[in-house]
Each structure stands twice: as C-alpha cells, then as structure tokens.
Design brief:
Blueprint (H helix, E strand, L loop, with lengths): L2 E7 L5 H12 L4 E4 L7 E8 L6 H4 L4 E9 L1 E3 L8 E4 L8 H6 L3 E5 L8 E2 L2 E2 H6 L10 E10 L4 E3 L2 E10 L5 H11 L4 E11 L2 E2 L6 H5 L8 H4 L4 E4 L2 H8 L4 E2 L9 E4 L5 E7 L5 E7 L6
Parallel strand pairs: 3-13, 15-17
Antiparallel strand pairs: 1-3, 2-3, 4-12, 4-13, 5-6, 7-10, 8-9, 10-12, 11-12, 13-14, 16-19, 17-18, 18-19
Length: 294
C-alpha cells in the first residue's frame, strides 16, 4: 500500500488529527501530508502513504485553490469564525467589492496570522498567541494570487455582510489573512467565516474521500508515478535495473531531458527519481523505491 490518498478533511479536525485517524484505519504509521489545513477549514488534504511519504517534497510547492466565505463587519483574534470577536462595525451597503478583490491579483505581501504554525525564534506563533504575547515583527511573505473572484451575491444579516469568493494562489497563502485584508480595503473589520480547499496542485476535491468512506474501504490510492506525472518520465530496461536498485549514477545517454525525472518499469511502477549530477555528465539518484541488492 504505497501512494497518495486524497482526503476531504472534515471541519473540527487538525491535519494531524486526520493523520492519526488514518493510522488506525490503514494500520501504518508511515503517513505524511502537504499543505496544512486549519481545524475550521475543510477540503482536499494530500496524504502520502508508506513510500508515498518520500514524494511529499515534490508536491509541497503546489498551487492551491480555495473557496472562502468572508464576513465583513467583524474581526476575531484568530481571523476565522472560531475566534473571539475583537472589533465590530455595522455594515450598511458595500460597494466596489469586485474592484477590491481584483487589486489582490499578482504579487501580494502577506503577514502570517498570530494563530498559525509558523515558527518564530523556535516556537510556533500560536504558542505566543495563546499566552497573550503579540509579535510585532513577524516576517512577511510574498504570495502570488493568480486569480480571485466573487461567486455569490452579498448577503446582509445582523449588521454583517457575507459573500463567497474563490482564490487561486501560490503555496503559503493564509486565506484568513486575505479575508481580513479584503475587509481592511473596504474599511471594515473582517474575518474568514468558512473555508474549503478545492484544489492542491492537480489534486481536486472531487477526487477526495471522506474519513467515513476510507473507513469503509471505499477509496483508491493514486500511484506514486501518477502522483508525479508532472515530472519527466523514463521507462527503464532490464540493463539499468541493477544501477537503480543500488542507487548508482546513470549515463545521460539514456535520458531525453536532464532535469528531475521519474524512472518507471513497463507497468509504470515508480522505481526511482533521478536528477542531473552537479559536476558529472550523469544523472544521480535522488530517491530509490526499490530494495538495495548485492
């Protein structure tokens, strides 16, 4: 059982909670995930199973797409719906919303929220936040927003305004902070009311499984090779099998492209990942998925 499992994370679970549940269901401790989701968030969580954990690093830089419901007129200490209200301002009528959303397209400098797992001087930011300590010099990060658009009407209720938007961005985006910043440009406090991750790289929510489905056995793993379909591919012959099993370098003559390449057998089983040697005219083994032989 090696591969990638797409989980539709339920609300109220941390990403680590999901891994713990899966360890009990799948009877293995060799599990890992990319792209942490907040407990309040739902959606696709990419999980590596057994040898699948070895390819997490190739999937961790993937772009993400989120569906968010924003609440305008009220902000919380966590920037989402689970936090304590810290500011409120009655909303009468919002204008220029789509223009404000469009202003976030392109490069966007964002400061991670205090309630996040980002490390600062050896501790997670949420550890400081839980003690009431505010860090004023959290390092900002530059995110690229490829697209963002409103997909619902504006609903006014109890002095607040709500609408849904979809955002497609590079890795590292905190949608909670984005919602807060959208409110700020509209001159209102704001927070993220709901959040669902629709896509992580090429992996879509439609192809993910609930924990209940996985418990019942109603799921299918994505093979290691298919999960890495964006990489170059070389179908190897028997003459190279000894080199691969022992992690030996391979001559460039076998490769059409000298960048990161997945080596597979005739049945598309992933054997290894190779990359160009920095000093020699060879391709070197980065990861080997076969047992070493004498």
């Amino acid at each position: 059982m090696d591969g990638i499992l797409l989980v539709n994370k339920p609300i109220g679970y941390t990403s680590h909670d999901v891994i713990n549940v899966l360890r009990g269901i799948l009877k293995t401790r060799k599990l890992g995930h990319t792209g942490t989701l907040d407990p309040d968030a739902t959606g696709v969580l990419v999980v590596g199973v057994n040898k699948g954990t070895k390819i997490m690093k190739y999937l961790n830089n993937d772009e993400k797409t989120y569906l968010s419901t924003i609440a305008i007129g009220q902000s919380t200490d966590t920037l989402d719906n689970s936090g304590t209200i810290i500011e409120k301002k009655n909303v009468q009528k919002l204008t220029a919303i789509d223009e404000v959303l469009n202003s976030f397209k392109g490069l966007y400098t964002q400061t991670p929220p205090m309630y996040s797992a980002i490390k600062y001087k050896g501790k997670r930011l949420y550890e400081y936040a839980r003690k009431g300590i505010i860090i004023d010099d959290i390092p900002s990060r530059i995110i690229e927003v490829f697209d963002i658009k409103r997909i619902s009407d504006i609903i006014y209720a109890d002095g607040l305004a709500y609408f849904d938007y979809v955002v497609h961005s590079s890795k590292g985006l905190y949608v909670r902070t984005l919602s807060y910043d959208i409110g700020k440009k509209l001159n209102y406090p704001a927070h993220n009311y709901k959040l669902q991750r629709l896509k992580a790289g090429k992996f879509k929510i439609e192809d993910s499984y609930t924990l209940d489905e996985i418990q019942k056995g109603d799921y299918q793993l994505i093979s290691l090779s298919n999960a890495l379909s964006d990489l170059n591919k070389l179908v190897v012959t028997d003459e190279l099998m000894h080199h691969i099993k022992n992690g030996m370098a391979i001559s460039l003559k076998y490769f059409d492209n000298y960048s990161l390449t997945r080596l597979v057998d005739q049945d598309d089983n992933l054997l290894a990942i190779y990359d160009k040697h920095p000093t020699e005219s060879k391709m070197k083994a980065i990861n080997v998925f076969l047992e070493k032989v004498d």
